[in-house]
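Practice problem 4.
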C-alpha cells in the first residue's frame, strides 16, 4: 500500500488505525511510540502534511537530532510525497513551500546550544521523530517556540519514538507513567491535554507483508533490547549509567532542604557554558565525609563576568569557600562575548576576587564517572549514600537517570546526553579524596584524608574550619 495515491484530482492518503489515531488526536501533545516498524515516521510526514493542507499560511516543523538523520530518512521520503501536492523544496532553508502559503521546515539540534537557532521561530505544530534522542532541555526549549497567532489554529506537539536512548527518562515520565492511569490526561502544571498511543510492529501490515522475517531477526537481540524494540516495552530499558542512583527521600540521595552548617567545609564546582547551559554546584562536606549538594545555578547565555556576578549573588554572608573547581580548558579558552581575548577563568576571577578562588579540575572522564558512582554507595551507620542532594537541585536530579552508556565506549557517558550538571559534579567529587571506610565519633574528623591535608605538618591545601559540626 502506498502512503499517498493521486486518483484524478483527489489525493488518497492511506494510513493504518494507530497512525490515524495519532494524526487526528485532539490533544495538545501526543506520543506515538514503542516498537520499531510501526510506521511512526510516515505518521509524522503525513500528519504534518495534513495540517498544512487544511490551514493555509501555517508553519509546521519536523525535528530529528541531527541533519544527516533527517536527510537520510524523512527528507528523502517527503520528496516522493509532497511534490504531489504542488510543494517545492528549498534545500538551503530545508523547507517545503505549498501553493496555499504553508511551510514545513526541517530542524535539528545536535547540541543543547543549537536550540537558539530557533529563538525567533513561530511554529504552529512541532513533530519530533525519535524523540528519545533529544534531551529534556532541547525539547522544553524548542516547544516553547510552538505557538499560534492565527485565529482558530491551535498549536500542537507530536512525538514518535522507540524506548531507550538519552531521552528515555523524560519521555517515560512525561507520557508513559501517566498513561498507566489514563489514556488521556491533563498535565498538572500547564493544563495541556496529553495522550500516549502505543506502537507495535503488527500495527504496520505493509512491513510484515514485505519483510516477514524482520521479527525473527529482532529475536537475535539481547532479551531486554528485543522486548523494547519488538514489543514496545518501556519498562525494560537498559543502559542507564548510574544504575545505583536512588531518588527516594529517606532511602537514596535526596534529603530535605536544610541550611548548611556554619562550621563545615564548603566549595563549588562549575561546568562552563554559554549557548550550552552552565552549571555551578555548592558542596558542604562534613567531617565524617558525607557530601551535601545544597545549591545549584543552571543558566545559559551569560558572559564569564555576568556568570561570576550571578554566583556571588547566591553566596550569602558568612559562607566561606575553599575554592571553585572548573574544567582546565577555561584557563586557555576565551569567550567572544567578552572581547579582548581574556581567558574565561581570568574574566571570572576578576569579579570573584578573593571571595572564591578558582582551581583547575581533573578532567579525566571515565575515572571521574567511577568516582561519582562510588559516592552513590551507602555509608555505614545510617545506610544512606555518601552523596546527598537537595531537592532544589532539580537539573542535577533530572540528569542522573537520563545518563546512558556511550555505545562506542561503554565506560563513558553518551556525549549526546545533557550532562552539564553531572560534569560539574564530576569535577567537584574528583577534587576531593577517597570515601572514608569507617564510622566516626563526633570527636573525630576525616578532613585530612578528604582534602589531602598532610598529617604532622602545618602545610595543607585548605584552611581547617573553626569549631565542629555537620554530622
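Answer key:
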Amino acid at each position: 500500500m502506498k502512503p499517498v495515491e493521486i486518483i484524478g484530482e483527489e489525493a488518497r492518503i492511506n494510513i493504518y488505525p494507530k497512525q490515524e489515531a495519532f494524526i487526528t488526536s485532539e490533544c495538545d501533545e501526543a506520543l506515538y511510540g514503542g516498537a520499531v516498524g510501526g510506521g511512526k515516521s510516515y505518521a509524522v510526514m503525513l500528519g504534518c502534511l495534513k495540517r498544512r493542507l487544511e490551514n493555509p499560511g501555517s508553519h509546521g516543523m519536523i525535528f530529528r537530532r541531527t541533519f544527516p538523520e533527517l536527510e537520510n530518512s524523512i527528507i528523502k521520503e517527503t520528496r516522493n510525497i509532497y511534490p504531489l501536492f504542488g510543494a517545492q523544496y528549498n534545500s538551503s532553508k530545508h523547507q517545503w513551500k505549498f501553493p496555499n502559503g504553508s511551510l514545513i521546515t526541517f530542524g535539528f539540534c545536535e547540541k543543547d546550544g543549537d536550540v537558539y537557532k530557533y529563538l525567533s521561530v513561530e511554529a504552529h505544530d512541532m513533530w519530533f521523530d525519535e524523540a528519545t534522542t533529544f534531551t529534556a532541555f532541547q525539547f522544553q526549549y524548542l516547544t516553547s517556540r510552538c505557538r499560534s497567532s492565527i485565529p482558530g489554529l491551535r498549536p500542537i506537539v507530536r512525538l514518535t519514538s522507540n524506548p531507550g536512548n538519552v531521552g528515555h527518562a523524560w519521555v517515560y515520565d512525561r507520557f508513559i507513567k501517566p498513561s498507566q492511569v489514563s489514556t488521556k490526561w491533563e498535565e498538572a502544571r500547564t493544563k495541556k491535554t496529553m495522550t500516549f498511543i502505543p506502537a507495535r510492529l503488527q500495527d504496520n501490515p505493509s512491513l510484515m507483508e514485505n519483510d516477514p522475517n524482520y521479527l525473527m531477526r529482532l529475536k537475535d537481540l539481547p532479551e531486554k533490547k528485543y522486548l523494547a524494540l519488538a514489543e514496545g516495552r518501556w519498562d525494560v530499558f537498559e543502559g542507564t549509567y548510574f544504575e545505583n542512583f536512588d531518588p527516594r527521600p529517606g532511602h537514596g540521595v535526596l534529603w530535605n532542604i536544610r541550611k548548611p552548617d556554619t562550621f563545615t567545609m564548603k566549595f563549588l564546582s562549575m561546568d562552563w557554558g554559554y549557548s550550552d547551559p552552565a552549571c555551578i554546584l555548592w558542596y558542604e562536606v562534613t567531617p565524617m565525609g558525607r557530601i551535601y549538594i545544597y545549591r545549584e545555578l543552571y543558566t545559559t547565555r551569560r558572559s564569564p563576568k555576568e556568570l561570576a556576578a550571578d554566583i556571588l549573588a547566591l553566596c550569602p554572608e558568612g559562607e566561606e569557600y575553599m575554592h571553585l573547581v572548573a574544567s582546565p580548558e577555561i584557563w586557555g579558552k576565551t569567550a567572544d562575548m567578552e572581547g579582548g581575548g581574556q581567558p574565561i577563568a581570568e574574566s571570572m576571577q576578576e569579579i570573584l576576587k578573593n571571595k572564591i578562588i578558582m582551581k583547575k579540575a581533573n578532567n579525566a572522564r571515565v575515572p571521574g564517572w567511577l568516582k561519582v558512582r562510588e559516592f552513590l554507595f551507602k555509608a555505614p551507620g545510617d545506610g544512606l549514600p555518601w552523596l546527598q542532594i537537595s531537592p532544589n537541585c532539580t537539573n542535577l536530579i533530572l540528569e542522573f537517570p537520563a545518563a546512558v552508556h556511550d555505545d562506542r565506549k561503554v565506560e563513558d557517558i553518551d556525549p549526546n546526553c545533557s550532562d552539564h550538571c553531572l560534569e560539574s559534579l564530576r569535577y567537584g567529587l574528583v577534587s576531593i579524596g577517597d570515601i572514608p571506610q569507617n564510622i566516626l565519633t563526633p570527636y573525630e574528623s576525616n578532613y585530612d584524608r578528604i582534602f589531602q591535608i598532610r598529617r604532622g605538618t602545618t602545610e595543607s591545601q585548605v584552611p581547617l574550619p573553626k569549631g565542629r559540626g555537620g554530622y
